[in-house]
Amino acid sequence: MSKIEGKTALVTGANRGIGKVFVKELLDRGVAKVYAAARKPESLEDLAAESGGRVVAIKLDVTSAEDVAAAAAHTDVSLLINNAGTAAFSGFVNADAIAQGRSEMDTNYFGTLRVSQAFAPALKANGGGAIINLGSIASLVNFPVLGTYSASKAAVHSLTQGLRAELAGQGTTVVGVYPGPVDTDMAEKLDADKTAPLEVVRQIFDALEKGEESVFPDPTSVQLYGQLVAEPDATAKFVGASYLPA
């Protein structure tokens, strides 16, 4: 049975980048409805208008407990995509690192936790459903140019593992996604090969349908993960030496 066709989904950070691509691909794969969530839902009006009523734009700042509670009133959700994220391009030893790290943790980690907590009961009531958490290959190895971001995504990886175990009893699949650089506004500062967002999203949904729980959806992530498995210390040192903040 498809985990997508005919279902109702919610995508956080849906107004730009990979989030917007998630919404469009969900429509192409036959969802009944998708709640497209963003801090400024008016930015999704055109997409909602073009969808024939299948896209519902809602306000959701994942750092706001009030917004999350209001979003969770939509109890028909059976597929939750935790996509919202933020990144500061710097290492740890700078004057702004603590403030940047807190902001990234609040959005990337605590935001994912808040939304997952809020929707777990609805997923259970709707047969279990699935959660997709957007981590990063930086969840598994720290990129100094993205030092505090890497730490926040490592926390998302740990959260994903914990949720997977905790929600298994209610039949909820929890998928961790670990892409390398994706060709979006967020990654425009990175001097690296980047994969098109649509290709990444298609790989993620294909993996979900196959029942895979860890997804490396692009060549960079596949290569780095293989190196990490084979030689974790050497790979971490290589990444540390190769990707230094300006």
From TrEMBL:
Pfam families: adh_short. It comes from the Bacteria. InterPro entries: KR_dom, NAD(P)-bd_dom_sf, Sc_DH/Rdtase_CS, SDR_fam. Keywords: Oxidoreductase. The keyword Oxidoreductase applies. The keyword Oxidoreductase applies. Residues 7-184 form the Ketoreductase domain. Belongs to the short-chain dehydrogenases/reductases (SDR) family. This is SDR family oxidoreductase. It comes from Roseibium polysiphoniae.
